[in-house]
Amino acid sequence: GENVEQHPSTLSVQEGDSAVIKCTYSDSASNYFPWYKQELGKRPQLIIDIRSNVGEKKDQRIAVTLNKTAKHFSLHITETQPEDSAVYFCAASIGAGGSYIPTFGRGTSLIVHP
Amino acid sequence: DSGVTQTPKHLITATGQRVTLRCSPRSGDLSVYWYQQSLDQGLQFLIQYYNGEERAKGNILERFSAQQFPDLHSELNLSSLELGDSALYFCASSVPGTNEQFFGPGTRLTVL
Hints:
The structure holds two protein chains of two kinds. Chain A is mostly beta strands.
C-alpha cells in the first residue's frame, strides 16, 4: 500500500520567517495531495491541495509544489504568523470512480515564535 | 464550524464493550469518511461511504463496521473494544465530484 513520509516532525521558526514541510510518497497511482492544519483539540482543516496534473499551487501565503517523478510534495508558508502554529498533515491519495483512499503523513508540529 | 456533526463528543467505556459513533454530513454531501487518530498510528483512513454504499476501505479492523443510512447520516460501530482502540474518531464529508473534505469535531473514545 501507499506509504507517506513527512519531515520534519517539529519545526520552530520566528515570526516572519518561511516554513517548509516535505512529504514523500511511494505509490505512483496517487493523484491527489491535500494538506491539513490541525490546531490543538480541533478538527483537521484543509488548507490547500494539489492534483497530479499540476506542479504548483498558491493561495496567499501558502503554496504547494509537487514533483511526480521524485514522488515528493512540499508545503511552503511565507511570512509566518503565531496563528500558523499547529500540526500540519500531508496526505497522498488515490481517487478513482468516486472512491478516495488517503494515506497521511505523521504530521509536523509548527511553532511560530512571536 | 464545518457543518459536519458528530455525537457523542466524548465516550468512556470498558474493554469488551460495543459503542456506536454517529455522524451527520453537510447538507448536500453524499460521501462520508471515517478516520481514527491516535498517538501511535497517527491519522488513519478507515472507510468511505457514498450515498449509502461502501466505496472504499482503509485500515478498518474486522471488529469495526459502518453504515450510511438513507438520510445520509452514518454510524461507526466498534465492538469487543480494546485499550488500543482509545483514540479520536473523525468523520468527514465531501462535495459530490470533489475530494475536498470537511471534518467533524470528532468523538474522543476512551477504553478503560
